[in-house]
Automatic annotation (TrEMBL):
Low complexity bias spans: 428-441
Protein name as annotated: HAT C-terminal dimerisation domain-containing protein
Top-level taxon of origin: Eukaryota
Subcellular location: Nucleus
InterPro entries in alphabetical order: HATC_C_dom, RNaseH-like_sf, ZnF_BED_domain_contain
Record bears the keyword Endoplasmic reticulum: no
Pfam families the UniProt entry points to: Dimer_Tnp_hAT
Composition bias type Basic and acidic residues, residue spans: 388-415
GO molecular function, one term: protein dimerization activity
GO CC term, one of those recorded: nucleus
Length: 679
């Protein structure tokens, strides 16, 4: 027990293996219990051997847990460059345990050798799967949208099952929802060429060409100007102190009812690749707008900060509208990066519904900003909007909230009454003017053009990936097999003539997938078979009239038809069910729908994102400090896997004194850090 607790201390606190060799610690333990030192392996080598032994023992327990899983085992993987410059692949497993609870386990932090081609990635992923002996249990794989991942899965599934076709593999390729939203938000903020923009900024910073980087960001309008202002404030202790002094001297601060924390006093700096850092930068800047304005008019600031970076009134109005547009994206990410609690928050059915919600949100804002005539912009935007391939263009149908309204595109007053939140604002009686905090009508023509083009760029990117969801039937199936939504959700939301094709395809895709992967392993359900046999062999009296024989025949055929009716058809005929947890609902109906319930449970175990890989990277970075860069990837993997298994309740280390229950580690903030998931 003492040895396990000692190892648990090293794992949980990220201290080095030499911790117990420290003189002061040894003296402390001797003062507490002179015999304790005899029970602890003091040397670094002893703790390393203990780690190896404990990892092997606990790994067998996790293997058994995977073997007992109620659902398929879905994999998530991602790549990371460690502080000691090793390419590392994280592989996580997602499944339902025997109680129907969603579980997540870190299987590997494996060094990725060679180039990051799809073929090489498939080799590493295959090695992990074979090591854990789950080849026949693998369901889907969740990863980001890199083309190399498509190649990886093509090779990975091809090795697992040579009979899998390209269609079968695409059906099991789950696109990380967080990565999709990351691409969409970056397209909104920086344009279609956002990757080139970010790469150029990184080059300027690497070469120390700070003036060029400032000019580079300035091209992106108010967001770029705010970036430069925040960078200016945070570039030296003196400027940070000047910003704080400007705030303290602001007379308006006398009316604050509550003080601000140390973190709230600071402005937030964004980085190049994580859009939500830009969202948080804008959000904090809007809260600190008065402080920033006071800072910008300080004589020292006016002397050193270029006039082109000074944020004006129009800039702040545009930043407020940008925050309003991006807020649903941020909230979607925060919602779906969870572990499928309470029937939602991270389950697959939230991906398609979430994208529908965000597409409609962008369409609302596009309509809102389209009412001001601008011939040049109209020509530009019309040329950009092209029908999405493979599926009808969603832009042909108005958002649901506008379908029952008369849409006059130019009078603002009638349209704004239908818009939610900040967009509608409080309208004056005068045409084309709004009052309230939004101030959108007061924005200049250039800012309106910027917003419209940004919205269209984001809509196109989101619609591109929304269309790609059709490559797998499981996204729509996750909605159909959610008993609180069902087929009726798709029928209501895909109601146009073109969208009815989507409904048909979703139903056919689900039926085909069920037949392909589930019906073949269960030729006839035992319960159905008994009903069929009873119906096919009615007890007929030895002497009966012709009418009686006829009635018996009709009855037998009717009973047989009902018994042999498709499980899926019987489920689809149900009305939407009132349930908070779809898994619990299906667990209670496994006898009624044996095949469909198994498919439903398998699908409900699929997460919306590969977030746990990012969490593992964040925790690994805390372990691999600047003084531990010589640690091997194998040791890092053992430490992080044990940490993950203990914190998720898969295994336990040590026991409390007096024979009480084994020590439990709470899943605190350190293990659940919000990691800005590539998102």
């Amino acid at each position: 027990m003492i040895r396990e607790l000692s190892l648990g201390l090293l794992i949980n606190t990220n201290v080095p293996f030499s911790f117990f060799s420290d003189t002061f610690f040894q003296q402390l333990t001797w003062q507490l219990d002179p015999h304790l030192s005899d029970q602890i392996s003091w040397s670094r080598q002893s703790m390393s051997r203990l780690l190896d032994d404990m990892y092997k023992t606990k790994k067998d327990m996790v293997k058994q847990e995977l073997s007992d899983a109620l659902s398929k085992i879905h994999l998530g993987f991602d790549l990371w460059t460690s502080p000691n410059r090793h390419a590392v692949m994280a592989v996580t497993a997602h499944f339902l345990d025997r109680q129907g609870k969603h579980q997540s386990r870190l299987l590997a932090l494996r060094r990725q050798l060679g180039c990051h081609s799809g073929e090489n990635l498939a080799v590493t992923l295959g090695q992990v799967v074979r090591e854990w002996k789950i080849e026949d249990r693998v369901g889907t794989v969740i990863s980001d949208n890199a083309s190399s991942n498509d190649t990886c899965l093509l090779n990975f599934y091809g090795d697992l099952d040579a009979e899998m076709s390209l269609v079968d593999i695409r059906a099991r390729r789950m696109r990380c929802y967080g990565h999709i939203l990351n691409l969409v938000a970056r397209a909104f903020l920086y344009g279609e060429d956002f990757e080139a923009f970010e790469a150029e900024s990184q080059v300027f910073n690497f070469l120390g060409r700070h003036e060029d980087d400032l000019r580079h960001w300035r091209k992106k309008g108010p967001v770029g100007k705010l970036h430069n202002v925040v960078k200016f404030i945070r570039s030296s202790p003196q400027r940070s102190e000047l910003f704080k002094n400007s705030r303290e001297n602001d007379e308006a601060q006398e009316y604050l009812l509550a003080g601000e924390s140390t973190a709230e006093l600071e402005v937030v700096m964004n980085n190049d690749t994580r859009w939500n850092s830009t969202y948080l930068m804008i959000s904090r800047a809007l809260v600190k707008q008065g402080d920033i304005r006071a800072f910008l008019v300080h004589p020292e600031v006016e002397k050193w900060l270029p006039e082109a970076d000074m944020s004006k009134g129009d800039d702040w109005r545009l930043l407020a509208e940008i925050k309003h547009i991006l807020e649903p994206f941020y909230l979607q990410i925060m919602r779906t990066q969870g572990w499928g609690s309470e029937g939602g928050n991270g389950r697959l059915w939230e991906v398609m519904t979430g994208m529908e919600y965000l597409l409609e949100h962008l369409e609302d804002r596009k309509l809102f900003h389209h009412v001001v005539p601008d011939d040049a912009v109209a020509e530009n935007t019309d040329s950009q909007v092209e029908p999405a391939r493979g599926r009808p263009d969603r832009n042909r149908q108005l958002p649901a909230r506008f379908r029952d309204c008369e849409m006059d595109m130019h009078p603002r007053k009638s349209m704004e009454s239908s818009l939610p939140g900040r967009g509608s604002g409080q309208c004056d009686d005068g045409p084309g003017k709004s009052s309230g905090s939004s101030g959108i009508d007061d924005m200049g023509k250039d800012h309106r053009r910027y917003l419209r083009l940004s919205i269209i760029t984001a809509w196109q990117k989101l619609n591109e990936y929304y269309t790609k969801l059709g490559e797998s039937p499981l996204f729509a199936a996750s909605i159909i097999l959610n008993p609180s939504l069902g087929m009726s959700y798709l029928e209501v939301n895909w109601a146009s003539e073109e969208q009815l094709v989507w409904v048909r395809d979703a139903k056919i895709g689900l039926s085909d997938y069920l037949d392909r992967w589930y019906r073949c392993s269960r030729p006839v359900d035992e319960q159905q078979k008994a009903i069929v046999e009873r119906a096919a062999s009615p007890i007929v009296p030895r002497k009966t009239s012709e009418a009686s024989v006829f009635r018996q025949w009709v009855k037998s055929r009717t009973a047989k038809t009902t018994a042999m009716g498709s499980e899926l058809e019987r489920y689809l005929r149900l009305e939407p069910q009132e349930t908070e947890d779809p898994i619990e609902w299906w667990m209670g109906r496994r006898g009624q729908f044996p095949m469909v319930s198994q498919l439903a449970l398998d699908i409900l175990a699929i997460p919306a994102m590969a977030t746990d890989c990012e969490r593992s990277f964040s925790l690994a970075k805390l372990t691999l400090t600047s003084q531990r860069l010589s640690m091997t990837t194998e040791t890092l993997e053992k430490l992080q896997c044990l940490k993950n298994w203990v914190r998720h309740g898969a295994v336990k280390l040590g026991a409390t004194a007096g024979g009480r229950d084994e020590l439990q580690w709470e899943i605190g903030n350190s293990s659940m850090e919000s990691t800005d998931v590539e998102i």
